[in-house]
Automatic annotation (TrEMBL):
EC class name: transferase
EC number, as in UniProt: 2.7.1.35
GO cellular component: cytosol
Protein name, UniProt field: pyridoxal kinase
Organism: Hominilimicola fabiformis
Keyword entries, A-Z: ATP-binding, Kinase, Nucleotide-binding, Transferase
GO BP terms: pyridoxal 5'-phosphate salvage
Length: 278
């Protein structure tokens, strides 16, 4: 059985990060191996008064124990990392478990809609660049692309030439493949463009643009993409599966946003995902 390590926080309520990654990876027939960086009572997107327990100091011990067991993994994927120390520890984790045959996938979670998430700064983006340099695949959104490249965020009015230039410069940070999310050239469609630095190939895939802001969709996309790549799908097919599943999750939530403002109802779409990967 294939195995994926997912390194990110776990929110006990709110459906994001590990609470999204673990069921999606498992549903794809892959063993999910969590490394929680923190435990929160809820996610931070709209909730107040949430509890937070930092687990940074536990990560090296987990890694050392796994190494003593000679465990092997088909991919190591990261999501939200909350501190400079966690980036350094995760970088060491990569060194311990990287092989010629597995994938390192970094989702450089730092911001959205042109702004850093609370607690993140330009200095954090500099450290995230170093982590991205060790990845085989990075999955930034347009905001994070601008943060990694230390330039102004452009939310609309760009063309394909601009996106291709972004992708090339992001790949120069060191990763083999860049998958850029949230790309839209018109009001009706939104999707992904990717670039393979080794082959020089660009690819893209778009689906329906659904207005609104939906929590957890980035985590859903990156987890599904990681699972599809580990299942052996090529990048083009993996991106299509991840985009279509994310859109499916959003559509299943439309009409019930009042009750599910904290995350999309991805659980209802798991049977669709299983069909997609058959």
């Amino acid at each position: 059985m294939k195995r994926i390590v997912s390194i990110q926080d776990i929110s006990c309520f709110g459906k994001c990060s590990l609470t999204v990654a673990l069921p999606i990876i498992s549903a794809m027939g892959i063993e999910a191996c969590p490394v929680p960086t923190a435990v929160l009572s809820t996610h931070t997107g709209g909730f107040t008064g949430y509890t937070y327990r930092d687990l940074t100091n536990d990560i090296p011990s987990i890694a050392d124990h796994w190494k003593s067991l000679d465990l092997k993994f088909d991919a190591v994927a990261t999501g939200y990392l909350g501190s400079f120390e966690q980036i350094k520890i995760v970088s060491d984790f990569f060194d311990k478990f990287k092989t010629d045959d597995n994938l390192i996938i970094v989702d450089p979670v730092m911001g959205d809609k042109g702004h850093f998430y609370a607690g993140f700064t330009e200095d954090f983006a500099l450290e995230m660049k170093k982590l991205c340099s060790k990845a085989d695949v990075i999955v930034p959104n347009l905001t994070e692309a601008a943060q990694l490249l230390d330039e102004d965020y452009i939310d609309s009015g760009y063309d394909e030439k601009y996106i291709k230039n972004l992708l090339i410069r992001l790949s120069n940070l060191g990763s083999k493949i860049v998958v850029l999310t949230g790309v839209s050239f018109d009001d009706n469609s939104q999707g992904v463009m990717s670039y393979n630095r080794e082959t020089g190939e660009f690819s893209s895939y778009f689906n329906e643009n659904i207005p609104g802001y939906f929590h957890s969709t980035g985590d859903i996309f990156s987890s599904t993409l990681c699972g599809a790549l580990v299942k052996g799908f090529d990048m083009g097919k993996a991106v299509r599966i991840a985009v279509d599943f994310t859109v499916d999750c959003i559509k299943h939530t439309l009409g019930s946003e009042k009750e599910h403002w904290y995350a999309v109802k991805f659980e209802e779409c798991i049977p669709d995902l299983i069909e997609m990967i058959k």
